[in-house]
Specification:
39% of the residues lie in helices and 14% in strands. The chain is built from 13 helices and 13 strands. It has helices at 16-26, 35-48, 60-71, 87-95, 114-120, 140-150, 201-210, 241-252, 254-272, 307-316, 333-339, 347-355, 367-384, and strands at 53-57, 78-82, 99-103, 125-131, 153-157, 165-166, 169-170, 177-181, 194-198, 278-280, 288-289, 295-299, 356-359. It starts with 15 loop residues before the first helix and ends with a helix. 48% of the residues are buried. The mean pLDDT is 96.
Length: 385
């Protein structure tokens, strides 16, 4: 075994510039719902590209929940969603009392595809909730065409897909809504927090009120302080000014961050690709640009049953790992017991959940770390075979 290194799977990338931005807010007197949030929304929209409108929120799940509330989904409605995703994707559907209809994953990317979605559409279907799995963009042309044909909304869960693009357009700008997460180990962080994005300004304008109690004007828009009207029901899903200030400096570094992640992913994939019994999930078409959140390896055949042993050995050697995701949503107790999903209907999602290892490629790492991860991975593979 090579000389041991300590390589965390993820680590918040916080610089002095970030700290100074937060301290400037703390030296002021506006700590929420102020100019930093507005600035962050504009900065992130500019990063996404032409047509993007954004409103900052407290989390990606909050953004998802707001989307379904805005569109008025509820009991009797169905939303098609991936079986292979973080539970937040489906929780947001469940909280408006719509029914999640789950579909299996594509073995090459972990994403859902148009033909799978088409088979799940019923007269009750109102929307497609899709996830760009580990930052690999879905093949959006066919999905958008299918949604248009059936009059369905598209909600894109881009929680770990910042920087992912399909035919040059950033994910989150194909459907009706895109949602983003700024959790500490993502491409960028605000500590906690998220962004609601849409091509439709009127949707963002409505959601900006919905996420702030449903009041008709912010404190900066009130001619008489403290005087406002409440024309609709709302929630408190706002982001703080400290978070937004951090988000602005992190957004400014995104091109550099994404470049480092791509370099790391390419180096590690080059070392591991072609290894017997190993499949690497990645974008399969030239139109797709991966956000390189992590490198997901799927262990095939008899190796699959040894995944946990392999993880333990990697961790002991200092290589941080993760799993995306611990099990398919239909096997999770709440959803299994409520809906009685047949776990055998999602064989690819089950294989990826049960037999994959996510390896780190974050901007906190460099080329030597990738070489160490590859060497260690191949060594422990030999040990467990």
């Amino acid at each position: 075994m090579s000389e041991k290194r300590e390589i965390p799977f993820g680590r918040p990338d916080i610089t002095d510039v970030d700290r100074e931005a937060v301290m400037r807010v703390l030296h002021g007197h506006i700590l929420t719902h102020g100019p930093e949030c507005k600035g962050f929304e504009g900065d992130f929209a500019a990063f996404m590209g032409a047509g993007a409108h954004c409103v900052s929120v407290s989390s990606c799940m909050a953004a998802l929940h707001l989307a379904y509330l805005h569109f008025g989904f509820g009991p009797g409605d169905e939303v098609i969603a991936p079986a292979l995703t973080h539970v937040a994707t489906v929780h947001a559907i469940e909280w408006v009392k719509a029914r999640p209809v789950l579909v299996d994953a594509d073995p090459a990317t972990g994403n859902i595809r148009a033909e799978q979605i088409a088979r799940a559409i019923t007269p009750k279907t109102r929307a497609i909730s899709l996830v760009h799995f580990v930052g690999i963009p879905c093949e959006m042309d066919d999905i958008v065409a299918l949604a248009d044909k059936h009059g369905l909304k598209i909600v894109e869960d881009c929680a770990i897909a910042i920087g992912a693009r399909w035919k040059g357009r950033h994910v989150g700008l194909f459907g009706d809504v895109g949602t983003f997460s700024f959790y500490p180990v993502k491409h960028m962080t605000t500590g906690e927090g998220g962004m609601f994005a849409s091509r439709h300004k009127e949707v963002v304008d409505a959601v900006s009120k919905l996420r702030a109690f449903g009041v008709d004007r912010t404190h900066t828009e009130r001619s008489i302080p403290g005087l406002y009207e409440v024309p609709s029901l709302g929630l408190n899903y706002r982001m703080s000014e400290m978070q937004a200030a951090l988000g602005r400096t992190q957004t400014a570094r995104l091109p550099k961050t994404l470049g480092r992640r791509k370099e790391n992913f390419t180096a590690l994939a080059g070392e591991l690709r072609g290894t017997k019994g190993l499949r690497i999930l990645d974008a399969q078409r030239p139109e797709a640009e991966n956000s390189h959140y992590c490198l997901t390896t799927v262990l095939e055949g008899e190796l699959g049953a040894k995944r946990n042993d392999l993880v333990a050995r990697l961790n002991a050697a200092g290589v941080g790992t993760s799993i995306y995701y611990p099990q398919p949503v239909p096997r999770m107790k709440y959803y299994r017991e409520k809906y009685g999903y047949d776990a055998n209907s999602y064989p690819v999602a089950s294989q990826i959940s049960d037999c994959s290892i996510a390896l780190p490629v974050g901007q906190h790492l460099g080329r030597e770390d990738m070489q160490y991860i590859a060497r260690t991975f191949l060594e422990v593979l030999k040990q467990v075979r």
